[in-house]
Design brief:
Blueprint lengths: L6 H14 L3 H11 L5 H8 L5 H41 L17 H15 L3 E2 L5 E3 H4 L19 E2 L6 E3 L5 H9 L4 E10 L11 E12 L3 H16 L5 E6 L4 E10 L16 E10 L1 H6 L7 E8 L1 H9 L12 H10 L2
This protein binds 3,4-dihydroxyphenylalanine (DAH).
Length: 349
């Protein structure tokens, strides 16, 4: 009996330890030591029954008072620790909204993708549908049905990659024009399509030539289409692309699949026609080839030439970009130099 602490000593020790507890974990351990099933205060309660009857009441009251007091103090202590833990967490997790943000590097489209979409959008608003075709093509569509027969000297203009094949002559398309044939074989007029896509020519690469490059073809066939429609359509395109103040020029040119054929130019957007490095002092920039679809081409796809006429055009989007931005090397598009590409993306008009 003498070895056990008195209620007063136990109370003092318990309160000292509880006040010193700096976290919730410690208060839980404290509970086990004093108020839990095997705790010191619980042990005192169990002793009540073994006391002489005259001491039981006073001892019982004292132990119960201690138990109540310690229980209440524990709750208070835990509540205050919880509150300060929450405060610390709020402080440490707080976001300083005044800090400058960290920039996120976003991806962007390749300039050739953007220019093609821009071109097709402009024609799209004028009623042209965008379609695509195969890069590995029958020579029949790439040449013959475009009025370029095998023995025709014009066939040499296109330096062709040939594909080995058992049967028909197959090539990598040298232009997007074969899609004129494919489109017309697949439907009756009215036709209004633009065709973006890769083309191939067996050529040495330099600042203005690539062996693989892009073209956008255009074709419109219907009743009553005239050269005036061609001029109006291309003029609208040039003004949307190079500015509403552009002057245009149409001159005779030759392509086997059109008659008449034209070369379409705009006044130089850089110098306004006065003459500069971009337009090689001529004041004009040649944008594309075009013309009225040759009646023989219409005949070969089975169109009624007494009823239908059409116009066609073909342009090189990379070349258009070089002109629009005053760039001097077409090879830059395909070097995958991310700094150059990003610069193009930022400079986009
Ligand atoms: N296919 C021609 C080339 O690659 C470009 C062209 C010229 C397309 C006149 C046309 C056109 O549709 O009418 O050089």
């Amino acid at each position: 009996m003498a070895a056990e602490p008195t209620i007063i000593e136990l109370r003092a020790a318990a309160l000292t330890r509880l006040n010193a507890a700096s976290d919730l974990e410690t208060t839980r351990a404290w509970y086990r030591d004093y108020l839990g099933d095997h705790g010191a205060v619980t042990a005192l309660t169990k002793r009540i029954a073994s006391l002489p009857p005259e001491q039981r009441r006073a001892f019982g009251i004292a132990v119960n008072a201690l138990k109540t007091e310690l229980g209440a103090t524990l709750s208070e202590r835990q509540a205050s620790l919880e509150a300060s833990a929450l405060e610390t967490r709020i402080e440490s997790e707080a976001i300083d909204v005044t800090l400058p943000g960290r920039p996120v590097r976003r991806g962007f489209l390749h300039p050739t993708t953007r220019i093609i979409r821009e071109i097709c959008d402009i024609f799209g608003k004028m009623g042209f549908q965008t379609v695509e075709g195969p890069e590995v093509e029958y020579a029949k569509y790439n040449f013959d049905m475009l009025n370029i027969p095998a023995d025709h000297p014009a066939r040499d203009v296109w330096d062709t990659f040939h594909v080995e094949s058992g049967e028909s002559e197959i090539v990598l398309r040298t232009h997007t024009s074969p899609m004129q044939v494919r489109t017309m074989l697949g439907q009756q007029p009215p036709v209004r399509v633009v065709v973006p896509g890769r083309c191939y020519r067996y050529e040495a690469t330099d600042a203005t030539h690539l062996a693989m490059f892009l073209q956008v073809e255009g074709l419109a066939v219907d009743e009553g289409i005239t050269l005036a429609d061609l001029k109006g359509t291309l003029t609208e395109f040039a003004r949307q692309m190079f500015g509403p103040e552009r002057k245009t020029r149409f001159r005779c040119d030759f392509f086997p699949f059109v008659e008449p054929g034209v070369d379409f130019a705009i006044d130089c957007p850089q110098c306004g026609g006065k003459g500069c490095r971009l337009c090689k002092q001529s004041g004009w920039i040649e944008l594309l080839g075009a013309g009225m679809v040759h009646p023989r081409v219409l005949e070969m796809v089975g169109y009624d030439t007494s009823k239908y006429t059409g116009f066609a055009f073909g342009m090189g989007p990379e070349r258009l970009m070089l002109l629009k931005y005053g760039l001097d090397d077409i090879r830059d598009f395909y070097k995958n130099d991310i700094r150059w590409l990003r610069q193009m993306d930022r400079a986009w008009l």
